[in-house]
Write a structure and sequence with these properties.
Rossmann fold, nine-stranded mixed beta sheet, 7 helices, globular
Length: about 240
């Protein structure tokens, strides 16, 4: 089968656990490091799926790769090639499909609880986690609106749109791909991004790393569920 294309927008926000998940299931993947100047493919034909990771920038910035990425997402959707977005990646999906990205009421940084939906679409994606509260990792100051036809399958009080699905495509505002090494590096940049004193939606680096001992294994299970559904739709079969 064709590889999954994973797009990186920042050197500290790589594929993380998503790559481990793919490799454990012998699904080929290729990294496209936009942060290092890689070109955006003109179309999605060469890939079984597209995955977009996070990044510190906004999709509303005038960056040279944003318009080509949005065009590539639309091309993939037109061919039913699954698209997956984490944080910035979820915002790119929304923007590409006619949604909007704007400042969230509050920044979310660290561990937080989201509420899984219980309708048929949520049950499809979340499985046993549908209708339950889920501990996930957050690091964002903006949020996306729902593109036409998308279904909201998770939310919380601080950010209304946490996970949205549109057919085989999934946009996440939260992060389920985290590894301990990634959390450690992100925490090193905490003071550069957080106003002092931080709001209740922002955890300190010490609190983040203390809670990861308990919450990271649970996040891994949630990721397995979501990624497992997503790869079932890969072009050519998982």
């Amino acid at each position: 089968m064709n590889p999954v294309a994973i797009f990186r927008h920042s050197p500290t926000e790589g594929p993380g656990y998503f790559a481990i998940f793919l490799e454990s299931r012998r699904i080929p993947w290729v990294l496209i490091p936009l942060d290092a100047g890689a070109d955006v493919p003109e179309n999605a034909d060469a890939y079984s799926g597209l995955c977009f990771m996070g990044g510190p920038m906004s999709v509303n910035e005038n960056l040279s790769w944003i318009a080509p990425v949005c065009a590539l997402i639309r091309d993939a959707v037109s061919q039913d090639i699954p698209v997956l977005g984490h944080c910035l990646g979820g915002q790119l999906i929304s923007k590409a499909l006619g949604g909007a990205v704007s400042k969230n009421p509050v920044p979310e940084i660290g561990w937080s609880v989201i509420n899984g939906g219980a309708d048929a679409v949520a049950r499809h994606w979340l499985g046993e986690y549908a209708g339950k509260t889920l501990d996930v990792f957050q690091w964002h100051g903006e949020t996306f609106s729902l593109p036409q036809g998308a279904t909201l399958i998770a939310e919380n009080a601080d950010c209304a749109h946490q996970i949205a699905a549109l057919g085989p495509h999934l946009a996440l505002q939260c992060h389920v791909e985290m590894l301990p090494e990634m959390i450690a590096v992100w925490c090193e940049h905490w003071r550069e991004e957080v106003a002092i004193p931080p709001p209740p939606s922002v955890q300190t680096p010490e609190r983040i790393q203390m809670e990861q001992v308990e919450k990271l294994p649970l996040l891994r299970q949630i990721a397995d569920q979501i990624y497992g559904v997503w790869i079932a739709g890969l072009k050519g079969g998982a």
